From TrEMBL:
This is Pyridoxal 5'-phosphate synthase subunit PdxT. Belongs to the glutaminase PdxT/SNO family. It comes from Pseudolysinimonas yzui. The lineage of its organism: Bacteria, Bacillati, Actinomycetota, Actinomycetes, Micrococcales. The keyword GTP-binding does not apply. GO terms for molecular function: glutaminase activity; pyridoxal 5'-phosphate synthase (glutamine hydrolysing) activity. GO terms for cellular component: cytosol; glutaminase complex. Keywords: Glutamine amidotransferase, Hydrolase, Lyase, Pyridoxal phosphate. It catalyses: L-glutamine + H2O = L-glutamate + NH4(+); aldehydo-D-ribose 5-phosphate + D-glyceraldehyde 3-phosphate + L-glutamine = pyridoxal 5'-phosphate + L-glutamate + phosphate + 3 H2O + H(+).
Length: 188
């Protein structure tokens, strides 16, 4: 669990409740010991700065290139995107997901909302999705595929091999199917 900033504590609780041996990752040596990484929601600009300051950005990019499973929620999705729109000057990210993501895509007045998403491959029951100053996935490149869309067609969850990204926050709901999917991908 990347634990530099954001709501990593909620994710740690969920992962442990699902039976995973989840640990906070704050330095490169800790990254060496994990089979997969969850990147929480929070603030991507801060997560970017801290990951570089802590010497984690390059090792994370390397692990992603080597095929480590990663699940990014919200700011974590932004960190995983190959291209970020409305980034601040100099903002960097890890990349890996062949998508274009726009930060704060739902504007200021309506920057937080909840909705139910139909995601057939996660089962018949809709996924309750909480969006908090959320990004949206504006383009899905050939290497990635959309997993979930809003009623207006905007993409809010994607998958590319062992990389998974959601614009919303399953860790604040009681629906952990995305965490299960991530844990399945590390073969826990
Ligand atoms: N707006 C935040 C960002 O740009 C993301 C918000 C969130 O993670 N809930 O990083």
């Amino acid at each position: 669990m990347l634990a530099l900033q954001g709501d990593f504590r909620e994710h740690l609780l969920v992962l442990r409740e699902r039976g995973a041996d989840a640990v906070p990752v704050r330095r490169a040596a800790e990254l060496d010991d994990v089979a997969g990484l969850v990147i929480p929601g929070g603030e991507s600009t801060v997560m970017d700065k801290l990951s570089r300051a802590f010497g984690l950005a390059e090792p994370i990019k390397q692990r992603i290139a080597d095929g480590m499973p990663v699940y990014g929620t919200c700011a974590g999705l932004i960190m995983l995107a190959d291209t970020v729109r409305d980034a601040i000057t100099g903002q960097q990210n890890f990349g890996g997901l062949d998508v274009v993501v726009r930060r704060n895509a739902f504007g200021n007045q309506n920057d937080s909302f909840e909705t139910d998403l139909d995601i057939p491959e996660l089962g018949e029951r809709p996924v309750h999705a909480v969006f908090i100053r959320a990004p949206v996935i504006e383009q899905v490149g050939p290497a990635a595929r959309s997993l979930a869309e809003l009623d207006d067609g905007r993409v809010v969850a994607v998958e590319q091999g062992v990389l998974l990204g959601t614009a919303f926050h399953p860790e604040v709901t009681a629906d952990y199917r995305f965490h299960e999917r991530f844990l399945d991908s590390i073969g826990r």
